[in-house]
Amino acid sequence: MAMMILFLLAFTTLSCLVTNSLGNTIETSCYPDLLDVGSEELVAGLESGAWTSVDLTKAYILRIQEVNPVLNAVTEINPDALAIASAMDAERANGTIRSALHGIPMLIKNNIATSDRMNNTAGSYALIGAKVPRDAGVATKLRAAGVILLGKSNLSQWANFRSSNSTNGWSAYGGQVTGAYYPNQDPSGSSSGSGVGSSIGLALASLGTETSGSILAPASQNNLVGIKPTVGLTSRALVIPISEHQDTVGPMARSVSDAAYVLSIIAGKDENDNYTLAQPWDTPPDYTNSLNFSSFRGARIGVPRNALSSSQYNQPVLDAFEDAISILKKAGATVVDNANFSAYEEFVADSNDPVGKGTIVLSADFVSDVANYLSELTFNPNNIKSLEDISNFTHMFPLEDYPERDTAVWNTSLSLGYNNTDPRFWDAYQYTSYLGGEGSVTGALKANNLDALILPTDYAYPFAAFAGLPVVTVPLGFYPSNSTVVKQQYWNLVETGPNIPFGLSFMGNKWSEETLISFAYAYEQRTKTRSKVRPYIVPNTQLKDVINT
Ligand SMILES: *[C@@H]1O[C@H](CO)[C@@H](O)[C@H](O)[C@H]1NC(C)=O
Ligand SMILES: *[C@@H]1O[C@H](CO)[C@@H](O)[C@H](O)[C@H]1NC(C)=O
Ligand SMILES: *[C@@H]1O[C@H](CO)[C@@H](O)[C@H](O)[C@H]1NC(C)=O
Ligand SMILES: *[C@@H]1O[C@H](CO)[C@@H](O)[C@H](O)[C@H]1NC(C)=O
Ligand SMILES: *[C@@H]1O[C@H](CO)[C@@H](O)[C@H](O)[C@H]1NC(C)=O
Ligand SMILES: *[C@@H]1O[C@H](CO)[C@@H](O)[C@H](O)[C@H]1NC(C)=O
Ligand SMILES: *[C@@H]1O[C@H](CO)[C@@H](O)[C@H](O)[C@H]1NC(C)=O
Ligand SMILES: *[C@@H]1O[C@H](CO)[C@@H](O)[C@H](O)[C@H]1NC(C)=O
Ligand SMILES: *[C@@H]1O[C@H](CO)[C@@H](O)[C@H](O)[C@H]1NC(C)=O
Ligand SMILES: *[C@@H]1O[C@H](CO)[C@@H](O)[C@H](O)[C@H]1NC(C)=O
Ligand SMILES: CC(=O)N[C@H]1CO[C@H](CO)[C@@H](O)[C@@H]1O
């Protein structure tokens, strides 16, 4: 047997050997598994000629078609994806390499507009067929970088700004997304399809958007790295909004490295989103320079203990978090415990208040910002101009599933009677900026002279959301095989159960993405938690199935 293996090793330099589950060494193709492959390996294959962008695009389309009937992760496939891939292949053959991700397919969330044959609907029938004057700012940057916009990923409708009684990952136009780690898994949201799509390799990576948790939570629950950039690092122009003060666009990927490549492309100023003009540089950093294994050496990392609470089911999360703290210490970090949030009690009180300041900020911003988005449409088939129009359309259009899924969130917005030009809005925004900033994240960073704070991702995002601060989440662990299956009250999705992943968040000051990425990378490289749990469902199509066919 040993001789046999040696013999094989000596004579199969062009193929690969793997050990299968029975312990036998078998020969297989050298193509990487698209479930886990990283951008550098994909690019190396494009450069060597082992595969083309057309091959990659074909394989990803087949993978989407295999699993979409169960997972509903992708709403639309770009009908031009193969033609674009072919053009990128021609450019590469001719020596034109637009960026590090030239010719690599990605998915984008179905609230990021493209001026092509794809719809941009936030999951509502109200906007099917609507046209925009140009690509969204981030889509423009991806296209210019030669990234293939493969399709639109499903989402919680209106980025979860509609109903008090709906589900993560449900939209009228797109159906219910489910996660790949447990049958009927709650995919989290609102960037649900972006999370599921990246997690099982329906593209290299995806873009999500976040107002409060919509990148971080689905990245966490789908075993991914997610970067929620500082508000203003990435353009929101022609992204269907919730709140100009809190919205941001960021990558969801299988590794910190891939997320850093994507962020380096989409970051930067855009004259169509004036928040981006506040960036402290002319050209943003190359975030791949932050992939530093040694970054914890000499770093000061805080734990805001008072923001952690235990529930009946989250012991595995809290245990994994303590393990992470000890990994950071061994890697050379000084961990400052009890770097508490001074305004935590006020934060909780505001969150529990149905007309709290946090609700006012989003409600008033939405009235103004969604109207601004709609005013930019060059074709508006249902003549939808305002939130009132959206609400009326939703109430009368049967496929919008009203009243089963209510519109209570809009009622709150409409009953305010003002938008974000009102002094009452400004007052609320000053308060939430304080709650998320001086009263929590930036206050704790300063008081303890820290480089970053850590929390399990489920606890981390609402603070950073209020103050427009960046957060990076990286896989931390997953629920053990004997954990209790916990389902949602009305809609039966599995919120917690065996193998369902969760993440660790690094939080920092505005524009501190380089530092946060360096920590996320150093943690990821020491733990490789993503590889320790497998999805229950994966597509079978691989590159070998499409090459030369
Ligand atoms: C080929 O490369 C040249 C020089 O870089 C460029 O001018 C030309 O447009 C390229 N052609 C294609 C098809 O990309
Ligand atoms: C956009 O929506 C229209 C109307 O439903 C549909 O005909 C078209 O196929 C959609 N586009 C894509 C790329 O799916
Ligand atoms: C962006 O422009 C709007 C309208 O022109 C203005 O109200 C707002 O203050 C500007 N924001 C920034 C950050 O410059
Ligand atoms: C990596 O981080 C360590 C600790 O901060 C630092 O000393 C080192 O210079 C960094 N390496 C690079 C290549 O930036
Ligand atoms: C921080 O919060 C924890 C948990 O609530 C508490 O036990 C601890 O005393 C607090 N420490 C400080 C310094 O406030
Ligand atoms: C916001 O409110 C102001 C004052 O009532 C009004 O003039 C403006 O048209 C409103 N803007 C939007 C987009 O609703
Ligand atoms: C929305 O529907 C309500 C109730 O039917 C009606 O009073 C209102 O005029 C409608 N608003 C618009 C903008 O059509
Ligand atoms: C939520 O919707 C479900 C399904 O329509 C319904 O059974 C339930 O009563 C609703 N819950 C509330 C609190 O409205
Ligand atoms: C929201 O407003 C609509 C009218 O626009 C009303 O029919 C509905 O009962 C309200 N829903 C709630 C939850 O208040
Ligand atoms: C799962 O197994 C672990 C280790 O055997 C045990 O400590 C834990 O209580 C079990 N959990 C459940 C929900 O049965
Ligand atoms: C590309 C794709 O498969 N889209 C599907 C998304 O989900 C909706 C609703 O289930 C289907 O109608 C689409 O065909």
Automatic annotation (TrEMBL):
Statement: the UniProt record of this protein carries the keyword Signal: yes
Statement: the UniProt record of this protein carries the keyword DNA damage: no
Residues annotated as signal peptide: 1-23
Pfam (any one): Amidase
Keywords linked to the UniProt accession: Signal
UniProt superkingdom: Eukaryota
Coiled coil: none
Amidase domain sequence ranges: 55-516
InterPro entries per the UniProt record, alphabetical: Amidase_dom, AS_sf
Protein name: Putative amidase
